[in-house]
Amino acid sequence: MSPLRRKPENVLGHELPEPRLTIAGVVLLLAWATLPVLVVGSLLDLLVQWLFGVCVGLWCVL
Q: What does the CA dihedral 34, 37, 42, 44 come to, rounded to 10 degrees?
């Protein structure tokens, strides 16, 4: 057993399962990590297009 792991907790004689990463947790992590990057990137692309007249954004490719 790793020194960082705690012993399983007992509540009223029942052993609680270890915390684990769920599908909902993965979705939230992806949303929190990717959405700000996409928004900031899109705003920077829009700024470059507005300043220099060169379209470098994803919408130019599609």
A: -170
Which residue type does 49 have?
Q
Per residue in 23-47, pLDDT (tens digit) is 999 999 989 989 999 899 888 888 8
Give, rounded to a whole angstrom, the gap between the first and last alpha carbons of the chain.
52
* 36, 44 contact by CB (below 8 A): no
Contacts of residue 56, defined as CB under 8 A and 6 or more positions apart, other chains included, come to 45, 48, 49
Residue tagged 């609680």 (tokens): 16
